[in-house]
Design brief:
Blueprint (H helix, E strand, L loop, with lengths): L7 E6 L8 H12 L3 E7 L13 E6 L7 H26 L4 E6 L5 H9 L3 E6 L3 H8 L5 H17 L2 E4 L2 H9 L5 E3 L6 H5 L5 H4 L4 E6 L9 H13 L5 E6 L5 H10 L6 E5 L3 H10 L2 E3 L10 H8 L4 E4 L2 H7 L3 E4 L4 H12 L2 H19 L1 H12 L17 H12 L2
Parallel strand pairs: 1-2, 1-4, 2-3, 4-5, 5-6, 6-7, 8-9, 8-11, 9-10, 11-12, 12-13
Helix pairs in contact: 1-16, 3-5, 9-14, 12-15, 15-16, 16-17
């Protein structure tokens, strides 16, 4: 059996850089801790700096392409990224062996490179975070039948080249199996407990408000952050709850529009947009808050923010969608999808009932600690990536988590 420090994992990520991609940062940390050498093809970004000088980690950076807007804009962005990935992977492979190629998807465009690397002896692992047809539909970009068929075609091509796929929930797992994946493991994108535990509440974050509400995440059109602003309008202007402050943490394509909407609605004293902030700042806000909010209407999404809220014992309100319910039932109040009036009612009810907030928060924290935290996902993820068949899963690949047995075999093998 080859020693783990002789295994080389190459990773390709497109839509955000390594330094910004919270899931990939956790994966890279654990691959390095397990003894692998890692190369990451990623767009250049200042937040990559902490990773540029780490032992056994190499960044293959390329200039950030123009950010896509609309079908043609995204096509141009993806074409530029694909070209750079082809050049950088080729150079890498000519210099040394690549044992594993991991594709962080979407977009589902890298399967031609994956076939080449597979023919050259690499194991191909697809880390599927979202589904492009569903994202297109939820953005309201129309979803022409021809484009949807193309996206489904790319999805099938990507899944059929993979030796193994990891994904974030059961909805995606089932869809990927339908698309042709042969082995799929659910590796949830929960927070790292030790980092969450290091955060402490800050009176400065709360300010003078009696109640602090938070929303955290990336602001794509599909995330419906406009409904967060409308919730604030309902609370402040319609229900008179001027004792509340809402902090929106994160950035994305909709940030400027949301700031303009907040100004037009006269909500600036009660709604704050921080822009992009690091994880420590996000966690300080979560530790200081009374209530979290999620307004996504995507049936297939397991919100990372929900797991982060739960790790802090922070109750939250969200719409009653399949994966949100699977994730948060007992830790959140679920309301009918799109019902802003009911959402407002439940926010007010929770703000005025600290005992109920405590019960929901305690349930959520236990669930994260026992099941959802990133530490619970590591054995399944590393075993899925490992190129040696002796380090594979025990039990059917469809099952979530991966089990402790595979993790014990992995750790034992890595010590040899």
């Amino acid at each position: 059996m080859r020693r783990a420090d002789r295994w080389h994992v190459a990773v390709v990520v497109e839509n955000v850089s390594l330094g910004v991609d919270t899931r990939l940062r956790k994966q890279v940390d654990d691959l390095l801790a397990a003894g692998f050498r890692v190369s990451v093809v990623t767009m250049r970004h200042p937040d990559n700096e902490p990773f540029r000088h780490r032992d056994r980690l190499r960044l293959l950076e390329y200039p950030a392409p123009p950010e896509g807007s609309g079908v043609l804009g995204f096509a141009r962005e993806y074409a530029v990224s694909f070209g750079w990935a082809a050049v950088l992977l080729t150079r890498l492979r000519l210099r040394e062996r690549v044992d594993v190629l991991q594709l962080c998807q979407p977009p589902d465009i890298y399967f031609p490179l994956a076939w080449v690397m597979r023919w050259a002896g690499a194991r191909v692992v697809v880390d599927q975070r979202d589904l492009m047809p569903e994202v297109l539909a939820s953005r309201g970009d129309g979803g022409p039948a021809l484009l949807l068929r193309l996206l489904r075609h790319l999805e099938r091509r990507s899944q059929r080249v993979a030796h193994r796929t990891v994904t974030v929930n059961e909805y995606l797992r089932d869809r990927l199996l339908q698309a042709g994946a042969t082995e799929v493991d659910v590796v949830r994108n929960g927070p790292v407990l030790r980092r969450a535990a290091a955060a402490v509440a800050s009176p400065a974050v709360r300010g003078q408000a009696a109640h602090l509400l938070v929303w955290a995440g990336k602001m794509g059109r599909q995330d419906r952050v406009d409904l967060v602003v409308r919730l604030a309008e309902s609370l402040v202007h319609q229900r008179g709850r001027t004792d509340c402050r809402l902090v929106v943490l994160g950035d994305g394509e909709c940030l400027d529009e949301l700031r303009d909407l907040t100004t037009r609605l006269g909500l600036e004293p009660w709604v704050t947009f921080t822009g992009w902030v690091d994880e420590a700042t996000v966690f300080t806000h979560l530790a200081s808050a009374d209530l979290g909010v999620d307004t996504s209407l995507q049936e297939e999404v397991s919100p990372v923010k929900a797991m982060e809220y739960m790790s802090f014992g922070l109750p939250f309100v969200c719409f009653d969608l399949l994966e949100s319910r699977r994730l948060a039932e007992g830790a959140a109040v679920l309301v009918p999808a799109g019902d802003l009036e009911r959402l407002t009612d439940e926010v007010i009810g929770l703000l005025d009932d600290p005992g109920r907030r405590q019960r929901l928060g305690d349930h959520g924290r236990r669930r994260v600690e026992q099941e959802l935290a990133w530490e619970r996902q590591v054995p399944a993820y590393v075993a899925a990536v490992a190129p040696d068949p002796h380090l594979g899963h025990a039990g059917p690949a469809r099952r979530a988590g991966g089990g402790a047995a595979s993790g014990r075999r992995l750790r034992a093998a890595l010590r040899r």
